[in-house]
Target: Membrane protein
Amino acid sequence: MRDHPRLPTSPGFWRSPLRGPWLTSVLGLVLLTGITVLFVTGLVSYAAYNPGLSPVNDQTPDKGLLGFYLFAWPTDPVWLYRLTQGTHVTLGITLIPVLLAKLWSVVPRLFELPPARSVAHALERVSLVLLVGGGLFEFTTGVLNVQLDYVFPGSFYPLHFYGAWVFFAAFVAHAALKAPAAVRTVRRRTAGRAGTAERPAAADAGTLVAPRPDPPTVSRRGPLGQVGGASLLLLVTTVGQSLGGPFRRTALLAPHGTADPGGGPNGFQINKTAGYAGITAADTHEDAWRLVVTGRTGAVRLSRAELLRLPQHSASLPIACVEGWSTADQWWRGVRLRDLAALAGYDGAPPDLFVESLQRHGAFRHAALRANQVADPRSLLAFQVNGEGLSPDHGYPARIIVPAAPGVLNTKWVSRLTFGDL
Model:
């Protein structure tokens, strides 16, 4: 039967003169670096939640051997999570045009017949399907989590975590098969030939070069300029949410970008309002609210006035969120967590800490902190920020603030602290 050019399985169906090994190789090498950084920073972000510490923090309890790398998240430098997660989110958004261009450049291969000409070809096809599906899934769920407070069916954390491993496994397999050839293709391409369309030759059978290409309307470098421009635009309109300061006004595509909300000492980004969390004025009224501190000496109930009479300390710390946004350093003041551990009977090295919130709605109503986080002198149960009492949306009457910890572990509206091994 004659090859029908109207079907995508026919090489003649694909007419663009821009597709070819050189364009595909350049895009692939960019993704090789970018996706590797994305994967590593994603694993680091997961480790920052300290999921090995307590089931409370573990959003993927069946991870098994995939949690082999987990480690005690450090408290220095204080901007560590701000850097790693800001890089993860900003780079992921910036790479979207590159990913889409790469998919466009290889789409004819998804329709090649026969499906497998050899074992190596079969492995390449399988890795390509997993790569395309996994890439679209990871980027889609990531963007939905950042932009829309996550609307994808199922829990974001396990889906994104397991999806990342499947995607990266396919990515490694595909890179091992194709990266050497991609490097050779880019090296062979001279500057003089970079602006011309590639022509098929006998050795090009089964490649991406169109056998009957349409007349070119743009040079070979044209698509790279368009992709680079789109990526640069996304970078400029996103990265400001992590950099802060005047750059925040450029973060037009970031949900927590633009100017700081409100004004005054409490006028900086929040992720969860008191109303959203179900916190009422009756819950936090000074006459009614009590902090319960539990440890070796049993349970102690402390009013806000009693807590304010304890030695107060200050720390300049940012808040950084899994969604990629962060605040500038804010000046927090309150009681050191290690002093509260001593009050609970731990005079020496403090233990791990389980924190409970008044929060009624949303995730992370409870959180666990490691002993090294509790011991840091900058880790506070904070009552003030920037010289003023906490606002309801920032956690009044008391909140946790820990250096370098993800924002969700800086629990707001704290009601109980339980010290001891978790």
Observations:
- The radius of gyration is 26 Å.
